[in-house]
Amino acid sequence: MDPAPSPTVPPPGTAMPSATIPPSAGIAASGPRARLGVREARGRFSGGRGYLAACTLGLPTRETLAAMRADAEEWSLGRADAARYGAVVERVRSGYAGLVSVPVGAVAIGSQASVMAGLVAASVPDGAEVLCVDGDFSSMVFPFLSQRHRGVTVRHVPLGELAGSITANTWLVAWSLVQSATGAIANTEAIVAAAHRSGTFTLCDTTQAAGWMPVDASRFDATICHSYKWLCAPRGAAFLTVSARLAEELNPAQAGWYAGESPWASCYGPEMNLATDARRFDVSPAWPAWVGAEPAIELFRSLDLAEVRAHAVGLGDALCDGLGIDRLGQAIVSWPDADGQGLGRLTAAGLVASGRAGRARVAFHLWNDEDDVADALTALGR
């Protein structure tokens, strides 16, 4: 066995390397990206027929699987390199910034959506009001409810009433762009306009949106996205984008070595020199997840997300037609299923779907086609 090399750790005061470290297999370091169509992108996945659960867990591409297997092999041989991992993280950060149309300096990285929401929640002023959606995913609700001991008030309203419920007393409005339980899409234009008029900060969770529809994170003061669903990355690669206006209000309460201006010079106290951009909100990354996230993010950067949206919504609307319900214009379709019979029929037919809040839920993504719609309708007796 070849001797394992020592980790290539930069000297104190230097930033993590990026351009000098080769990217993961199959990923171009720079230059123009060839546009992929939905049909070609579907070929990147090993499976997916009958898998109607991107809203629960995305599927990995062949490139993600290859990158993670290669990384595991290097780790097993004692060749894993901390600096190489750092370079991967920076490439993914940059790729995600491009995907959602923000500067790379506005992107912080982490591992969980709730932890990022918790960072924002901990910075809400004592006694301030936060406005949330009634029935939104708990990661966008619980962090704010946990601040009640400081007098923070959390008000819940239906999604359709969110914009009209923002007042001059609302410090933050927090919502999911696409609702987890129903797939309903928020009226972003109305919410952002109302928040602008009242001076309210905006926090939008794009976890159920980014990957199947275009997302412009620059429209919000902050966004959160855990990329393991529609972006098809491993669980553990999450992003926080933050505007300069909100960044001034946030306390980097979770700061560790990775939040330092030079992480490799920030491994020990007592002095703390945090990054001046959004990296000061970073938490130390779960390295193997980011190895798998790199080809995933690059795939979605190469797609026309308007085309992906048309594909996913087309399948969703076709299912609605077959179910005899109004077209929703959504990638996620759900319907009342309190007794679980609908979900049971889908499962019995070998389809992978999900149930949330007393509703059966299916989702359509790159790997799905009209055959999946037909199979679902047959399973449901339609």
Automatic annotation (TrEMBL):
UniProt keyword annotation of Lyase present: yes
InterPro entries: Aminotrans_V_dom, PyrdxlP-dep_Trfase, PyrdxlP-dep_Trfase_major, PyrdxlP-dep_Trfase_small
Domain Aminotransferase class V: 117-322
UniProt keyword annotations, A-Z: Lyase
A GO MF label: lyase activity
UniProt entry tagged with the keyword Coiled coil: no
Superkingdom: Bacteria
Name recorded for this polypeptide: Selenocysteine lyase/Cysteine desulfurase
Organism in which the protein naturally occurs: Cryobacterium psychrotolerans
